[in-house]
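User: quick one
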Amino acid sequence: MPPKRTTVRDLRRQNRSTLLSTLFFDGPLSRHELGARSGLSAATVSNVTGELVEDGLVVEAGSVDSDGGRPRVLLRVNPAYGHVVGVDVGETGIKVELFDLGMTQLAAVEHNLSPADPVSVAELIASGLAEVVAGVPASTVLGVGIAVPGTVEQGPAAIVHAQTLGWDGVPLEEMIRSAGVALPLYVENGAKTQGQAEMWFGAGRGARHVVVALVGSGVGAAVVTDGAVYRGTTSSAGEWGHTTIVYGGRPCRCGSSGCLEAYVGAEGILDRYQRARGSRHTPASDEQSGVDSLIQAAATSKTAARVLEETAGYLGAGIANLVNLFNPERIVLGGWAGLALGEHYFDRIVTATRSHSLRHPYEQTSIALGQLGPDAVAVGAATLPVAALLDRGTDPRKPLSHPHIA
Amino acid sequence: MPPKRTTVRDLRRQNRSTLLSTLFFDGPLSRHELGARSGLSAATVSNVTGELVEDGLVVEAGSVDSDGGRPRVLLRVNPAYGHVVGVDVGETGIKVELFDLGMTQLAAVEHNLSPADPVSVAELIASGLAEVVAGVPASTVLGVGIAVPGTVEQGPAAIVHAQTLGWDGVPLEEMIRSAGVALPLYVENGAKTQGQAEMWFGAGRGARHVVVALVGSGVGAAVVTDGAVYRGTTSSAGEWGHTTIVYGGRPCRCGSSGCLEAYVGAEGILDRYQRARGSRHTPASDEQSGVDSLIQAAATSKTAARVLEETAGYLGAGIANLVNLFNPERIVLGGWAGLALGEHYFDRIVTATRSHSLRHPYEQTSIALGQLGPDAVAVGAATLPVAALLDRGTDPRKPLSHPHIA
DNA sequence: TAGCCTAATTTTAAGTCGCAAACTAACTTG
DNA sequence: CAAGTTAGTTTGCGACTTAAAATTAGGCTA
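Assistant: Done. Structure below.
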């Protein structure tokens, strides 16, 4: 409630964070360049980077000639400073991946688990974590990001609501703790972590206002406003898939009707195709191959082509709603179905977006396909502890108190 | 581009801003209480408030006993420190209103002007301004907020796109300057200023994530995220009225079809009613009385009742989209038509909202009617220079440089 | 009315911070 | 190897917030 005061020490933390983040995202830089980018004086840069180097967060990385003067010493974030783990909790199993601070994958394990009992999942996460972390000193693991397919209520401990898993108010964070994990945990919605991955390493790089629209079995979006993923009051913002696009239209699994997901989600697409063909029982082996073969079929089948074109229309209108409401500078279309559709029907989607957007916001935005596949969910999750590190400028495990330089 | 560095002076500015804002919004407070709320030490509070008092921004306002000790001296923002002007540019005329810093209206003028030629509007604003400001010393006017019914492209000078006025890329700010106004100008979309008014003085008070949904002839929304009106890349965010709610539905004046505005905007409601009755030519004297009499008619006419109930349904679905996307803690329904509908069909709107929202975000939000009428647009505009004052902690006319205490 | 008590402000004495200016370091050139 | 350049450090200072000590300002008591 009290608008946190600002003390003189916050200055240092903030500048530390700024420099560290600049180094992280813009690769090796000299102190000089760092000063230019951050606006800080050379003296301060020198001072702060000195601390960062002393703490082991930053290391020197060769040097570069500077025509006719002292060569610049390049600095970069020390990839070996620590490790982070990303966990992707999916509907059929979980993936656990270990990265260093350079976001290089060092290890990964995958476990299937159909009956998604929360306790088993928590235990599976704990054991996967133990497996993956085995190769590195325990003390170097800075935190664990956990992506779940549902909304996450952030609070003293994260609570998960995931309809597709049948979870309603599952205290996942506590459960993982009970399974014996003592590391900092960051539980977040999978669409948001994937969006974060696109922002850091994919099609969203460099932009500050982005909407990452994800279409797969489910439909969701990660809204990035001013560089940060927007969460809303209880961090369930961005539920694009269940916005109404056809009032009174197709029933949706969420219980409502006319949701975007009921039209452009994989199940919705396939079901619409079945109905268009008149047949009712062609259970595709799985959704992903079902959509693939539908796209194949469009080459020869008019019905298939029409269904997909309609899909592009709905999708464009859905994207246009995001354009009108958020006025982003960039839209990134991702998710496996989104990428598949985007590859074959990009123009049509763009056209539909244009025709349903107001001219002005439409002209300010560009539409791009995501550069990362659905695998990005785990990397995105792993960025959460890294983001905490960059944000605080220090090991997120340390309590935020007097640094007390020894 | 460079992530603005933080210097030790920013600290002071920020703390000054915090204290000033706290005083502005939370009424007279003692230095003690101020320290408690801001987290600042008593010493700093004393120091900063001393400056504020010296600058005339804050004045003492009586004192309060404190059981058995030195009584607390109350401080409050000095309403007489300066004046601000709010301008409401409407489709048929403009309103210019003068306020003191306590937001008490001191003067107001209204001019009609049907042919909305931008140059005449600019001149009308300039002359209205002169009229209204006549009673106070010129040097006390801190700035002028100007609300327009269209999107505003913020930049070195604001550009206005207002379809209903036939404006497309009108450099209104420059034009007003050319008309001889030298004061700081803040041009903003009218929905956003009205939203700001509800946030400061109306149904949005105290909340940080709010969507103010405005339904009148047009339909728009002001989205407040973390206490500030969200603007997007080029500040045209929040165009709720032109989001698609019925894919392939009624044509909208924006050129698209199925927009929310085509269903719940006044014109849309009345037109749907005409069609439902089969008659085509009952040109209501004006939209506002048309909607009023439609609501009257609903008591006896089944058709009228049905149209309004359907309207409540569409509106609820539209609100649900905002709930799903933004996860606000509060929804404020306003605008003249929104208030009229809300008064008679509140339950139905809420029901429709619930049935189209995901359960979790719906449960986190509350829906309330706006407390301010459409008159609030001008007050909202007037808050813009005040916001600049609170934000900077100093007269917004002064360049932001060394304070150099004399 | 003098003296005591309590609680609100102000002063005072550190301890931090970023900055400009003055230096030092490390090369290139002629 | 002296002069010229560019990178990075050190030094001294002004600006800040804070904790602690000192100073009000009423209310009460004797």
